[in-house]
Amino acid sequence: MAAAAAAARRVSCSLLRRDHRHLLPLLRPFASSAGGQPQLTVETSVPFTGHKIDPPSRSVDTNPSELLSFFREMSLMRRMEIAADSLYKSKLIRGFCHLYDGQEAVAIGLEASITKKDAIITAYRDHCIYLARGGSLVESFAELMGRRAGCSKGKGGSMHFYKKESGFFGGHGIVGAQVPLGCGLAFAQRYLKEGTVTFALYGDGAANQGQLFEALNISALWDLPVILVCENNHYGMGTAEWRAAKSPAYYKRGDYVPGLKVDGMDVLAVKQACKFAKEYALQNGPIILEMDTYRYHGHSMSDPGSTYRTRDEITGVRQERDPIERVRKLIVSYELATASELKDFEKEVRKEVDEAIAQAKESPMPDPSELFTNVYVKGFGVEAFGADRKEVKAVLP
Ligand SMILES: Cc1ncc(C[n+]2csc(CCOP(=O)(O)OP(=O)(O)O)c2C)c(N)n1
Ligand SMILES: [Mg+2]
């Protein structure tokens, strides 16, 4: 971080290196330095496309420390997921495990536009959202390895990360089920007049489910402050979107509910869209954001991810649209840090992840009595039988 601070102090907006002049249409610095930091304005990679709404501006305000923190946080997420892959292969993580590498810009851009009083709820691809909400690496790895120090006490595993105090309501394994729950959270926010919103994230596969439309209908009818975020990574397990959806324009699928199509690989575009959506939802009710994104790993650890898509497709996205590389280019062309400083950054990140894994491994497995806590049964291990549920069998831990 010391390198980042030093780099940020060195920033001079008027100094775009000669060899980066070709980026001028993309980068439009202006000389304001309110708050001590130079303010930067960056154009999004592509324009937003609106459905029943005028889209926000493509010019996004940012500053050096934000860009550096985006780089750092996305690198941390990327490294965490790659390390989880290795831990899985060494059998230290078992069961379900869905990785988020490739999609990091959605988690980071969303977090940059809201507060911890706003709520987020997502499906099973949840590790990085948890991290973005302020969760720690140790809690994440401990949860993945089923240890006591995990964010769900080692009882949830990969799909059930949770951090209620920071407005993160999971981590859900049943495809689509989190969307009606998210609408319920928004109902509570409206009822309690909290002035906050809920972002309910779901995949392109989930986007075809009936429950989504039922929840959206009632949310629109009651003007609930909910933002439906479709993370369109273009596949639901091994099924390409065109095999599953008559209309893959998910931002339009709310019909009477407005929507916005966003480049989900561009963290600044995600930030701009989420800020816009929050303001809209507080005034008017639901809106849909379709994030055009991509997952580098297979669907889960049992899927190599290369039987239903070509290697060229994956390599092409990495080369052309990678969210970390995009921010790296911005940082270097603004001279906020050099390429070698960013490499040092990444080395620090790698060390941080390794240390967290070592610490998480020291945490013991949950006590067997935990089998009977936090389950929907009254009392420890008590089950009721019979038509009138009057026969009771108690199994003590
Ligand atoms: C109700 C239900 N049906 C099926 C499954 C099995 N399943 C798990 S993930 C998945 C694909 C979902 O794809 P998508 O919504 O695009 O999310 P992504 O994995 O791409 O993030 C399916 C069918 C499930 N968990 N729940
Ligand atoms: Mg998908």
Summary, kept brief:
This protein has 397 residues and is α/β, with parallel strands linked by helices. 38% of the residues lie in helices and 13% in strands.
What can you see in these coordinates?
- The protein is α/β, with parallel strands linked by helices.
- The protein has 2 domains: 2-366, Thiamin diphosphate (ThDP)-binding fold, Pyr/PP domains (Rossmann fold, 3-Layer(aba) Sandwich); 371-397, no CATH class.
- The protein is built from 12 helices and 13 strands.
- Strands 3-10-11-7-6-5 form a 6-stranded mixed sheet, with helices on both faces. Strands 1-2-4 form a 3-stranded antiparallel sheet.
- Helix 9 (267-284) links the parallel strand 10 (259-263) and strand 11.
- The termini are far apart.
List the SSEs and their pairings.
Layout: H1 2-9, E1 27-29, E2 40-43, E3 49-51, E4 59-62, H2 64-89, H3 104-111, E5 119-121, H4 127-132, H5 137-144, H6 178-191, E6 198-203, H7 210-221, E7 226-232, E8 235-236, E9 239-240, H8 241-244, E10 259-263, H9 267-284, E11 287-292, H10 311-321, H11 323-333, H12 339-362, E12 382-385, E13 391-394
Parallel strand pairs: 5-6, 6-7, 7-11, 10-11
Antiparallel strand pairs: 1-2, 2-4, 3-10, 8-9, 12-13
The chain binds thiamine diphosphate and magnesium ion.
Residues 203-205, 233, 235-236 line the site of magnesium ion (MG).
